[in-house]
Structure formats: C-alpha cells, structure tokens
Amino acid sequence: MNITLGRLKQLIRESINEDIVDDISSQSLEKMGDLVSGGMSKEYENMSHRMALKSIAQLHKVEEDQIMSEFEIGVKEEMEHTDSVLVACEIAIDHLVEAPDYYTRLEDAGL
Fold this sequence. Notes:
With 111 residues, the chain is an all-alpha fold. It is built from six helices and no strands. The protein starts with a helix and ends with a helix. It has one domain (5-29, 40-109). Helix content is 62%, strand content 0%. The protein has helices spanning 5-16, 21-28, 49-60, 64-78, 85-98, 102-109.
C-alpha cells in the first residue's frame, strides 16, 4: 500500500491538529533535509517523508500502515519537545529507523 499525500495530511492533522498541514505536506514531497544533526535517518535526507517511511517499512519488513501508525504517535510525542513540525517528523523518522515499534515500546514502558 502506498502512502498518499492525503493520508499523510490526515495523519499529521490528527496527530498535531495544526493549521499548517498543507504547507507541511507539500514540504514533505520535497527532500527531508537535515534539520537535526546526528540521528539515524541520514540516508533518507534526499527522500520525501513518504518515501522515507516506505523505505523504513521495507527495512524492517513490516507493513507501511504499521510505520505510519508509529509515525503518527511519534510526531505527536516529539511535538512535546519542539515547535517545529518538520523537526518532530525528522526525529520520529530517526527513531523509526532504530525500531519500527519505537513509540509503542515507549508507551508500553510508561515513558
């Protein structure tokens, strides 16, 4: 299943409930870049968020829906630490490279 732009907008809108979703989504079609130094997602910098999430699903041999679900949780979690949605997205992607269930593990641990 491919991640559509509409689905990405919906997930971000549901996760962070901000009015800048269209701007974020259009930027997500561009290269991610590197807004946060370090991290695990260096090889995904030249991809869009959608392509990076698809690649991460393939890396871990899991369904894209699982990665998208974790991404949704991750963006919401990371927004507690930054005012930038794009930074939150990059950090969430960094963590999903580490483990496809990174945020579920955090929730299960009560963190």
